[in-house]
From TrEMBL:
InterPro entries: PDZ, PDZ_sf. Residues 1-20 are annotated as: Disordered. This is PDZ domain-containing protein. GO terms for molecular function: serine-type endopeptidase activity. Belongs to the peptidase S1C family. It comes from the Eukaryota. It comes from Calcidiscus leptoporus. Residues 28-99, 253-328 form the PDZ domain. GO terms for biological process: proteolysis. Signal peptide: none annotated. PROSITE patterns: PDZ (PS50106).
């Protein structure tokens, strides 16, 4: 469901597109010394030596099957550090590569892995937009995946689809299943520009343990509880009012201002928020992608009275509805 979109003309529908989002990635590149003694990264504009990069170390092109391509660098990436050393207009990507060539010349090792920090602008991929549309044979679920430095996730992927989950692994304990399709990681859409592996590699700085919230498309089976997004939380809410201070730690209260247009600026499936438009009333109120709304003005949301139903019946002032939200 979509609400809060800009006015549409009667002549042609308008498509809402989110602005590009800049993220920081960690990229690992294996450099190899060729028989000629050269080390080629595989970036530039028609060359392989990086000499065509601009002053801010932006990658113009990536040579197929090069060290850069295998490491995951993409055109448009801005490389900010090389093995922890900040890149500047004087110490460029080309300078760093030349330095590595001298290091390898002084050793007997033919290869070296370097760690790059990269700034990348990503657009919301079309497959993400298609994924959040309602589908009768599947549902969107939020999964909280706890990760630990030095521990494997136990997740085997083909693209964004889970093809194997190691028993008793971090992924297994989080509830991920074979067949799940990952669509966002901590609110950032996954796709060719930002893969699940890159998301797992880019852990928060100085943290050895951290938790990521995933939005996952999952096929519905006969064993699934269709009310699982809300049932577990709602069952324990009896006897509590919105004024209570005894809510579980992952339940928060959000007051939502309904504008005259009644357009709140979010997409939902069931009672789960799957997208929030920046600057819209829902965004200003603090709703996030992955939030599961439990109640609307103390009215429990269920399969028969959903978040969509509540939004469609929302009234403009003087009372702003208060939502109880489960956040992972």
């Amino acid at each position: 469901m979509e609400t809060g979109s800009p006015p549409r003309s009667s002549s042609a529908p308008r498509t809402i597109s989110s602005p590009p989002r800049t993220i920081k990635l960690t990229v690992f590149v294996d450099l190899h010394k060729e028989p000629s003694g050269e080390i080629r990264l595989g970036v530039g504009a028609g060359t392989q030596d990086g000499s065509r990069l601009n002053v801010v170390n932006m990658v113009k092109t990536v040579v197929p099957d090069s060290a850069a391509a295998r490491g995951g660098l993409q055109p448009g990436d801005v490389v900010s550090t090389w093995d922890g050393e900040p890149l500047t207009s004087s110490f460029t990507l080309s300078s760093a590569l030349a330095l590595e060539a001298k290091v390898l010349d002084a050793t007997t090792q033919p290869t070296k892995r370097v760690t790059l920090e990269v700034m990348r602008q990503i657009n919301k991929p079309k497959e993400h937009e298609e994924a959040i549309k309602e589908q009768p044979d599947s549902k969107l679920v939020t999964v909280r995946l706890s990760l630990r430095s030095g521990h494997k996730s136990g997740l085997k992927l083909q693209g964004r689809q889970v093809i194997d989950v190691t028993a008793d692994s971090l992924a297994d304990k989080a509830g991920l299943r074979v067949g799940d399709v990952l669509h966002s990681w901590d609110g950032i859409p996954l796709g060719p520009q930002y893969t699940p592996q890159q998301a797992m590699d880019s852990r928060p700085e100085a943290l050895s343990d951290w938790t990521a919230v995933l939005l996952v498309r999952r096929e519905v089976t006969d064993d699934d509880d269709t009310a699982s997004d809300t049932g577990s939380a709602i069952s324990g809410l009896s006897g509590l009012s919105l004024g209570s201070n005894n809510w579980p730690s992952n339940l928060i209260k959000i007051q939502l201002k309904v504008p005259e247009s009644k357009k709140l600026g979010l997409r939902v499936q069931g009672n789960t928020v799957v997208d929030v438009y920046e600057g819209a009333p829902a965004h200003v109120a603090g709703l996030r992608q992955g939030d599961v709304v439990q109640t609307w003005d103390e009215m429990p949301l269920t399969n028969s009275f959903t978040l969509r139903d509540a939004m469609e019946t929302a009234k403009v002032g003087p009372h702003d509805p208060v939502l109880l939200v489960k956040r992972y």
